[in-house]
Amino acid sequence: MSRSEILFNSAQKHIPGGVNSPVRAFRSVGGTPLFFKHAEGAYVIDEDDKRYVDYVGSWGPMILGHSHPEVLDAVRRQLEHGLSYGAPTAMETEMAERVCSLVPSMEMVRMVSSGTEATMSALRLARGYTGRDSIIKFEGCYHGHSDSLLVKAGSGALTQGVPSSAGVPADFARHTLTLPFNDLAAVEATLAEVGQQVACIIVEPVAGNMNCVPPAPGFLEGLRAQCDKHGVVLIFDEVMTGFRVALGGAQAHYGVTPDLSTFGKIVGGGMPVGCFGGKRAIMECIAPLGPVYQAGTLSGNPLAMAAGLTTLKLISRPGFHDELSDYTRTMLEGLRERAKAAGIPFVTTQVGGMFGLYFSEAEAISTFEDVMASDVERFRKFFHLMLEGGVYLAPSAFEAGFTSIVHGETELRLTLDAAERAFARLK
Ligand code: PMP
Q1: What sign results for the dihedral spanned by CA atoms 166, 168, 170, 173?
Q2: Which parts of the sequence carry N6-(pyridoxal phosphate)lysine (predicted)?
Q3: Which of 113, 143, 149 to mutate to test the pocket of ligand 1 (most atoms within 8 A of CB)?
Q4: Structural element, H or E, at residue 227
Q5: What does the pLDDT look like over 180-237, one tens digit per residue?
């Protein structure tokens, strides 16, 4: 038995499913999850001392690669001064200034400890600000696990929302309307009918939780116009895309300005951090200034701020995101060439340092149905063949992949060689 298998067996005794977050359990690809003990640069190292080129990057935060020396130093320096004060620090203001300068739609920002908290709080704020209860989200978009957001509707968009999880009261779910991603006509029709009840539209500007689906041309612009028309707050959930698809996030990349944004992952540089913010008039509704309550014992935690701030400084150097994007493009081109040579239908999507892989005959991927029509069984085999070849992809056909700035020539060669062997064996 491998060390990972032994560890997974013991983990299951006291941890549900042996994991502290479900996708880690490899349920969707089968097999035993790898247990890691070290990560450095573009690599993760498992308990059996096997090294893998990492395309998960802790699900997004590790854009600089793992264990970046400057980030570790900043955390070490803060460590000497204590772990948490539960009182304001200078670093929090520096963080707020940096976030607001990198993302101009952010006039004010509040730090929290996860992406889930960021989106949950942004929703409450939108509801408090507008005095409306309903929200619109899109099928296949994930915004963390707060009750209102764990909902996907059936086919009739205006039928009552149906919870995707046990434990979410139907009474709650009925305020969540779920529409097809990239379908502006559905948004227009819904708002024409019930616009007066809708507090906000929340969207992943690049959908990264159903693999990776970029917005159709005009979709985000259309959301902006519809929100303006109906007095609805537009929330971009940039937990995944923020500071990744461009320094200023998807809103900079596509040139569409939301009212509120949520961030996580990169903003904490690998520590548990999220934040939400946007228009001053809306943010001033948050306690202690206004009536919308939101708080956190460890919010703005000094160690987390040290890691996040250093990460944001390092990714602000000119050319950073172009390099990240170039590696990603070259790697995906290489994969497509090798799949083609092996006669395997294969499609990729990419926005900056974020990508999707599909075993599919489709020309392009732009809807939830396109994603669902891809060959998940083939992905499962590919995933395990790549693992064997020393490449760690997200253990699900419905998750985006991530590159880091330290993925270079060596990692490209390792990845494409592993893929060539994998495609040959998939036939
Ligand atoms: N929003 C998006 C777009 C996400 O991708 C995620 C997590 N992958 C979240 C929110 C929730 O963030 P967290 O897991 O930090 O709670």
Answers
A1: negative
A2: 265
A3: 143
A4: helix 219-230
A5: 999 999 999 999 999 999 999 999 999 999 999 999 999 999 999 999 999 999 999 9
Q: Is the pLDDT of residue 258 over 60?
A: yes
| Bond into 291 cis (ω within 30) | no
Tokens linked to 60? 């997004």
Ligand 1 within 6 A of CB of 208: yes
> Inter-axis angle of helices 302-315 and 69-79, to 10 degrees?
150
CA of 423 to the centre of ligand 1 (A): 31
Interstrand relation of 260-263 and 233-237 (parallel, antiparallel or unpaired): parallel
Asked if 237 is an active-site residue, the reply is yes
Cα angle 381, 403, 120; round to 5: 95
Query: Which of 217, 184, 222 is CA-nearest to residue 364?
Result: 217
Q: Which residues pair with 350 in a beta bridge?
A: 355
The structure's pTM equals 0.97
Q: Which two tokens stand for residue 362?
A: 């489709």
Residue 243 tokens read as 């500071």
Contacts of 275 (CB under 8 A, 6+ apart): 99, 109, 110, 111, 112, 118, 262, 263, 264, 267
Report the alpha-carbon distance of residue 399 to residue 390 in Å, rounded: 19
If one counts every other C-beta atom within 10 angstroms of the C-beta of residue 43, the result is 20
Walk me through the domains of the chain, giving residue ranges and CATH numbers. Answer: 3-67+318-426 (3.90.1150.10), 69-315 (3.40.640.10)
Note if 129 is an active site residue: no
228 is an active site residue: no
Give the angle subtended at the CA of 58 by the CAs of 418 and 66, to the nearest 5°: 80
State the pLDDT at residue 161.
62
Length of the chain: 427
* b/e per residue 31-40 (b: at least 16 CB within 10 A): ebbbbbeebe
Query: Which two structure tokens, joined as six digits, stand for 258?
Result: 């939301």
Task: Give residue-wise pLDDT tens across range 41-66.
Answer: 999 999 999 999 999 999 999 999 99
Residue found under tokens 């020393």: 390
How far apart, in Å, are the Cα atoms of 76 and each of 70, 83, 170, 254, 360?
10, 11, 47, 37, 46
Cβ proximity of 52 and 392 under 8 Å:
yes
Give the 3-state secondary structure of residue 415.
helix
Q: According to the model, what pLDDT value does residue 157 have?
A: 34
